[in-house]
Amino acid sequence: MKLYFKKIKSIIQQHKLLKIFLILLVIVMLFVGIVILFISPITKYLIEKYDVKYTGRQIEMDLAYVNPFTGYIHLKNIQIYELNTDSIFFSADALNINVELRKIPSKTYEISDLTIKRPRGTIIQNNKEFNFNDLIEKFTSKDTTLVEKSPVHFNLLNVNIIDGEFYFRENSIPISYSIIKVNIETPGYQWNSDTIQSQFSFTSGIGKGDVKGAITVNLKNNDYKLAIGIHKFDLNIIAQYLKDLTSYGTFRATLDADLKSSGNFKSVDSVTTAGRLAISDFHFGKNPDEDYASFDKLTIVIKELSPKHKRYYYDSILMEKPFFKYEKYDYLDNLQRMFGQKGSKISEVKADDKFNLVLEIADFIKQLSKNFFSSHFTINSFAVKDADIKFNDFSQNEEFNIALNPFSITADSIDKNNKRVHVFLKSAIQPYGNMNIALSINPKDTSDFDLHVNVHKLPATLFNPYLITQSSFPLDRGTIELKAEWNVRNGNIKSDNQLLVIDPRLSKRLVNKNLRWLPMRIIMAFVRERGNVIDYQVPISGNLRDPKFHLRDVIFDVLKNIFVKPATTAYRMEVKTVETQIEKFLSVNWELRNSSPGSSEERFINEIVDFLEKNPDAKIKITPQVYTNKEKEYILFFEAKKKYFLTSLKKNSQSLSKEDSLQVEKMSIKDSAFVHYLDKLINDPLIFTIQEKCKRYIDSQIVNAKFKELNNDRQKVFLSYFKNNKAENQVSILSSESVIPYNGFSFYKIDYKGEFPESLLKAYRKMNDLNNAEPRRKFKKERKKSGGIF
């Protein structure tokens, strides 16, 4: 019985202990809950109350959760404001922190996890000032006194930034840029480790493209290793920085890259890079529709690029379909109009010591490549494919155009260890001609090279805008051939250069107030040889810094022509007569903006009429070859000058007399009063040429109507010769072709069906005899290659 009561008593005591334990447990749990319950709002209250005092910034949040027993901290919808404004500097949907409390007694402060969800931050720059400068100043210690303290260790581990958005604004340029979907993951930093590793990815916020990569940084010596992949990344930010360097213009391009680099943040030269870099859809120009420079794709494959070790090893460099346009105006050119006279806008940015990403990239590339030629370099394959290089000159009285298209450059095995590097340039010249250049250079010495240049089948009439401006005389025939052989050793030149102009012929003088006059017929008599060519050899010697041009051949030929050519006048007149006879039987030239044939053309038209009358079975086909662009330019100029003339004299178009028309014809398109009137009327700073100004002044429908009327009048005038002699049924006029004629003028191409005029056949036989005899035989091959006299 006693044992039984003892057992009951023991059970009761155990239940009391359990009850006490449970009560204590509940009390502890209530205490913990109360602490957690109250410490979280207290934390939120204290942060929001003392935020300005300790950070200088207002801080707000929806919720703060703090567990003082586990070290877990959670802040929901936290917002940090800009200094003294209601704009948000930084915000995040959630900030989660795990603090290792057990390590604090050992003076090791460790955040074992830090996660920021959907952070959004804004960086604002105004010249050299940033919107976070106050924070740097606030948390920078001002006490530089060294006080010996016991060591304190700090660890920041497992940092994750999830789906962030970061914005950058530069107010002085201005720049507005952003990156979104920013994700950063890193094991973090430990006090006893020098390196930090992290992986990152983000997407362009104002365009397409994404970036992924990994970076390792040594915090002690600033060494880094970077692996980065860029996919179709929009380079819109470049366009924004260009606005600070240019007066106008647009830019776009995309970037792809797969690179591995290592180096040191303190030294640009320390970088070592390998991988692939590609820039695509590059466009830079006046506006989105008018490029000054562009290319489809530039691909660079790098084996090793290391300026510090003087190694530049490229597998390939390939540029596809590059385009470049250079235009010259009455004042400056398209590049100086854009970047300021002699690059003044660039100089202004540099003088202001303003940060500009474009200039920084340019300096970076310059720094990387400054030791290129003194280093060891290889490029296994180098090519520029299907380039188009244009030059337009609007500074003359009419537009001048020439282009290299398609232009290509190829070079294989560019290696400094090679004795020679061979580069080949090949291009068609638009509208006519070809160019071939071969360069053989010593890669160890750029003053040691061989150069061969061959330009052929280039029409002399192409340069009429310059000839007309300087002399008043255009050419209506002529082919230019240019050959150059350069052998340069140690900078010393040995060069033979030949300029050959085959069958140049002057046309009728143009009378205009703004045209200079030169006695071109006398000049041509001196410079043109008996074989109706201009053939000069101009050797060059000396060195690259001080070349010597030897003009002995030029002077000797001029003197020879003075004394020899008078004795051969009869021969030269015979050649000219035969050439003219062949040409006029095969074509009828039209002066620009004129519907009446010249006296020489009229005489030969009548000869063709006589031939058809005598040969009823013979027929001719006429194909109008119309120089559309030049004809419309001349019509535009005349109509613009006429409208200005009538406006200034307050006349109407019906009262325009023949004397008035002649006065308008002679008026220069560059007349200062006329240009000033157009500038004031149009008032557009982005119109640089007289052609564009006249197009704004004259409706295109007027020009098109006048052009159509001109072609109809020419056809009526031409057919009238045949109708009057009842031979019109033997003539058929085909559809006109818009071309750039080799002779620089619109013309009617004549094809004979059936018999040929005996005079034409006789002239052909005579010309064949003349070409096979001296002095024309010497240039027979060149004439045949250039198409003869046409």
Radius of gyration: 41 Å
Strand content: 35-45%
Give a short account of the largest sheet: 27 strands, mixed
Number of strands: 32
- Counting DSSP H or I runs of 4 or more residues, the number of helices is 18
**Helix/strand-derived class?**
alpha+beta
Task: Give the integer mean of the pLDDT values.
Answer: 87
Helix content: 25-40%
Low-confidence spans: pLDDT under 50, at least 5 residues?
none
| Anisotropy-based shape | elongated
Q: Kindly, what is the distance between the CA atoms of the first and last residues, rounded to a whole number of angstroms?
A: 143 Å
Would you write up a description of this structure?
The chain has 790 residues and is α+β, with helices and mostly antiparallel strands. Among the domains are: 40-133 and 154-221, no CATH class; 235-394, no CATH class; 569-786, no CATH class. The protein has 18 helices and 32 strands. The strands form 2 sheets. The chain has a 27-stranded mixed beta sheet that branches. A hairpin with a 5-residue loop joins strand 19 and strand 20. Helix 10 (569-586) packs across helix 17 and helix 12 (628-649) packs across helix 15 (690-697). The longest helix has 54 residues, at 2-55.
Structure, briefly:
The chain is α+β, with helices and mostly antiparallel strands and 790 residues long. The protein has 18 helices and 32 strands.
